[in-house]
């Protein structure tokens, strides 16, 4: 059965109109006669979205009972039995209620796709797994409901539902997203213009990268070499000279003027030995281009202009930035230079910028020789010089008689020229052919193949020997120069590579990408296996279409140790390149080992942290446990003493002291055990729907009755939490607030609803906490200010935050207006007996779970 196709409506924020757009598409499909059903769509009481559901067949939801509540989830079995052509599944990142068929809704969607059903779904950019840290830095909220990026990337179509922040805020103000009583809080928190602008940019950039990835894949599969100027990509050609910094900055300014501009700096190590780049200068330029947001590339190429143009076309560049030549005027007799050659051969698709700099015409100190490796053109030129040049010279000498000695010197000059151009073989041919011409035309008897004078025989033999010797020396020098140049190019690459690896700046994937670029391969992969009989597994890869199963299937197979191999595709490398390839393989193995050692070090660090916590526990409780125990023991000993006749008042006071000490000890041991459970990761909350007004009052039993004012309305929505953990968290917060509140000032415990969250606030009028210490007070064994040792071991707030996060909530500290500290405990709420499935907000950043319609259908952009 053919796999179904996935289409995703991607939005930057809740309320942009993803669900509306999906339903509008469904109506268009139904009008064309397509069998389309609604598998799951949540309208969130938004009238325009609810209206769009009319006229569409809806598969009944599956009712699940969980912790006293009844919730509706998508009935995967019912959809599979119905087997429509297209199923609408809203909220791709939704977490299903425990007891459902799958833990995540995207897993339900995978089952539908595997059954051949096309699926149309929606998701917000903040729910992509790879963007969790970025979204948290923007909104201050860590997304707990995410969908793997690969699931979204595999979609056949991704349609961006876009809306400006101003339009989205107007839609919010008109009541099209939230109920009127929640609009003000949402606009002042999550829906701030800065938040919305940043999330919109994030969505646009992610989609642009996805389109760019698809375009590169298409060009690779169809072998498109012509440049498509879809976005500005500027390649900077570096020589390793000091002018490189000027070129990089100039390219960065050019990139800023174009939408989505990108800078790629490339240094080409020529194998002809004409480059003398400073590794230190290259390192400085690499740092500069990366600081400016570009990338640095190192490529080997015999012909610098051709290699530069091949690289530019390979990355679909639109512009090339080169510096004006540092050659002096006389050095142009050896060729037009790289800049002129690139400009001439760039074609109409590549713009070439020649940038002036302070090093122009100051000279490079380059050797005169053009190159060492003799290419096809030079070899043909050598043959032409050795054969045709000898014929032309013979014709000229037939016109002018200058003597046999001068004739031999001229033929010797032609032979040397042939050796310089084409190497040994053209020079030997020139020697043989020139000797025959000298014998036939200029040695008596003329026009015959015999030599009458023995002296002429000696002269021709000497000519032949000198010519062969000169040709041999020239050819040997060219070969040695080529070897030295290649070794220098290899050393530059290996030095650059080793520096990156030793500094820890290169990941395995980046190293393989560097390897692929260096040898101009299509893909590179590092394969490994446990033993000779185990199958190969891929440890890292780069490029398109890498070999993932057997190294023997690749164009180039380089063993790395006993059970590791590099597999490259694209072309067969010459034997002389395998030495550098082996070095790359060894470095890849080092990077892989370092990554695994880092993972083991992280695990060891976690264990060490656990040991530190346990050691601190033992050290911290040495006094705080003994104090209540000593008080209890003293009171019990006094009561049991037969020497003292205690009055009823004294007896009651001693019993009260025993009870207080036992309660204090119970509270202390409870916090220690709770902290130990949090550190070892054994806290498993039993989440269920509960009422805040039933749990919070129970948490006030450990404080005096007249020390707390309670304001928890009964009309609050139910929340998803563990009653025991919630009670312990609130109790710790209240006890901490009472401890620091001045005499006569009560602590306020209030609760309110914001969007799909319920906030419990514990407000005190104490000395407060500076902003720099607000996060530190939640760390274990932290006692603020000059709190005495008997005030506890400093675990109450750490335990409270740990329990809050275990329940999917947050605990933050804020300043109380007028002085003091406010602890804000934010938990997920339930509306209409249906659990909210997305939570992009906290107490300070409320937002709706999903998008909603506005007054008109939103603008959309269709991708791939």
UniProtKB/TrEMBL annotation:
Ranges annotated as biased composition (Polar residues): 836-845
> Could you cite one Gene Ontology molecular function of this protein?
ATP binding
Keywords, A to Z, come to: ATP-binding, Kinase, Membrane, Nucleotide-binding, Phosphoprotein, Transferase, Transmembrane, Transmembrane helix, Two-component regulatory system
Record-linked SMART domains: HATPase_c, HisKA
Q: Which residues cross the membrane?
A: 380-397, 409-437, 457-478
Stated EC number for the protein is 2.7.13.3
Report the catalytic activity: ATP + protein L-histidine = ADP + protein N-phospho-L-histidine
Compartment(s): Cell membrane; Membrane
UniProt keyword Transferase, yes or no: yes
> Is Amino-acid biosynthesis a UniProt keyword of this protein?
no
Q: Which GO terms describe its cellular component?
A: cytoplasm; plasma membrane
Name all Histidine kinase domain ranges: 620-831
Q: Annotated region Disordered: where?
A: 831-864
Q: Which PANTHER family match?
A: SENSOR PROTEIN KDPD
Protein name (database record): histidine kinase
Specify the taxonomic lineage: Bacteria, Bacillati, Actinomycetota, Actinomycetes, Kitasatosporales
């Amino acid at each position: 059965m053919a796999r179904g196709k996935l289409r995703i409506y991607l939005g930057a924020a809740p309320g942009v109109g993803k669900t509306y757009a999906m339903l509008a598409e469904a109506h268009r499909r139904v009008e064309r006669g397509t069998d389309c059903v609604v598998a799951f769509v949540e309208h969130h009481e938004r009238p325009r979205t609810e209206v769009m559901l009319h006229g569409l067949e809806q598969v009944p939801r599956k009712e699940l009972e969980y912790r006293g509540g009844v919730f509706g989830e998508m009935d995967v079995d019912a959809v599979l039995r119905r087997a429509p052509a297209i199923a609408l599944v809203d909220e791709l990142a939704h977490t299903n209620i425990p007891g459902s068929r799958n833990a995540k809704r995207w897993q339900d969607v995978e089952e539908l796709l595997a059954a051949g059903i096309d699926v149309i779904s929606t998701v917000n950019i903040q729910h992509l797994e790879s963007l969790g840290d970025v979204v948290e830095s923007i909104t201050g909220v860590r997304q707990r409901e995410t969908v793997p990026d690969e699931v979204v990337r595999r979609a056949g179509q991704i349609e961006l539902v876009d809306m400006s922040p101003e339009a989205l805020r107007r839609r919010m103000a008109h009541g099209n997203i939230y109920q009127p009583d929640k609009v003000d809080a949402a606009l002042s928190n999550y829906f701030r213009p800065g938040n919305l602008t940043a999330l919109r940019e994030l969505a646009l950039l992610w989609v642009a990268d996805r389109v760019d990835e698809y375009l590169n894949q298409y060009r690779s599969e169809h072998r498109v070499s012509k440049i498509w100027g879809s976005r500005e990509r500027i390649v900077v050609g570096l020589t390793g000279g000091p002018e490189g910094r000027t070129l990089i900055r100039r390219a960065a300014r050019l990139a800023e003027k174009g939408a989505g501009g990108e800078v790629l700096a490339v240094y080409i190590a020529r194998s002809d030995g004409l480059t003398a780049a400073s590794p230190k200068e290259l390192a400085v330029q690499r740092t500069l281009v990366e600081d400016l947001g570009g990338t640095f590339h190192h490529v080997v190429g015999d012909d610098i202009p051709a290699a530069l143009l091949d690289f530019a076309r390979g990355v679909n560049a639109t512009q090339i930035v080169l510096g004006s030549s540092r050659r002096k005027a006389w050095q142009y007799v050896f060729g037009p230079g790289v800049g002129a050659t690139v400009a001439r051969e760039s074609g109409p698709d590549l713009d070439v910028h020649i940038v002036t700099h302070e090093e122009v015409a100051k000279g490079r100190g380059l050797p005169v020789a053009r190159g060492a490796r003799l290419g096809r053109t030079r070899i043909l030129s050598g043959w032409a010089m050795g054969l045709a040049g000898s014929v032309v010279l013979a014709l000229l000498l037939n016109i002018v008689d200058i003597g046999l000695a001068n004739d031999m010197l001229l033929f010797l000059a032609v032979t040397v020229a042939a050796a310089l151009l084409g190497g040994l073989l053209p020079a030997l041919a020139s020697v043989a052919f020139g000797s025959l011409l000298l014998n036939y035309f200029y040695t008596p008897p003329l026009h015959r193949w015999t030599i009458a004078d023995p002296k002429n025989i000696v002269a021709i033999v000497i000519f032949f020997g000198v010519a062969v010797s000169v040709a041999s020396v020239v050819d040997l020098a060219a070969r040695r120069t080529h070897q030295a140049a290649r070794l220098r190019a290899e050393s530059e690459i290996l030095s650059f590579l080793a520096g990156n690896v030793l500094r820890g700046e290169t990941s395995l994937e980046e190293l393989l990408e560097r390897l692929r670029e260096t040898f101009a391969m299509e893909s590179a992969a590092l394969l490994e296996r446990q033993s000779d009989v185990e199958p190969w597994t891929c440890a890292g890869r780069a490029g398109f279409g890498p070999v993932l199963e057997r190294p023997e299937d690749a164009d180039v197979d380089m063993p790395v140790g006993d059970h590791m191999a590099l597999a490259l595709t694209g072309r067969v490398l010459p034997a002389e390149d395998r030495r550098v390839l082996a070095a790359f393989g060894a470095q890849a193995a080092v990077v892989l080992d370092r990554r695994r050692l880092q993972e083991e070090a992280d695990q060891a660090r976690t264990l060490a942290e656990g040991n530190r916590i346990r050691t601190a526990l033992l050290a911290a409780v040495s006094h705080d446990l003994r104090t209540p125990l000593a008080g209890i023991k003293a009171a019990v000993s006094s009561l049991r003493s037969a020497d003292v006749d205690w009055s009823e008042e004294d007896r009651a006071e001693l019993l009260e002291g025993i009870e207080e000490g036992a309660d204090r000890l119970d509270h202390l041991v409870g916090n220690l055990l709770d902290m130990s459970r949090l550190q070892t990761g054994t806290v498993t909350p039993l989440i269920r729907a509960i009422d805040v007004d039933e749990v919070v009052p129970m948490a006030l039993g450990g404080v005096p009755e007249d020390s707390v004012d309670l304001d928890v309305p009964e009309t609050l929505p139910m929340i998803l939490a563990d009653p025991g953990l919630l009670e312990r968290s609130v109790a710790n917060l209240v006890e901490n607030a009472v401890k620091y509140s001045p005499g006569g000032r009560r602590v306020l415990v209030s609760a309110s609803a914001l969007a799909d969250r319920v906030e419990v606030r514990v407000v005190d009028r104490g000395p407060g906490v500076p902003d720099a210490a607000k996060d530190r007070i939640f760390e274990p064994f932290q006692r603020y200010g000059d709190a005495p040792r008997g005030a506890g071991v400093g675990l109450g707030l750490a335990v409270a935050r740990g329990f809050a996060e275990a329940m999917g909530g947050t605990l933050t500290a804020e300043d109380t207006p007028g002085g003091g500290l406010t602890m804000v405990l934010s938990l997920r709420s339930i509306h209409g007996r249906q659990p909210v499935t997305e939570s992009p907000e906290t107490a300070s950043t409320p937002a709706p779970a999903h998008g909603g319609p506005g007054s008109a259908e939103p603008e959309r952009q269709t991708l791939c």
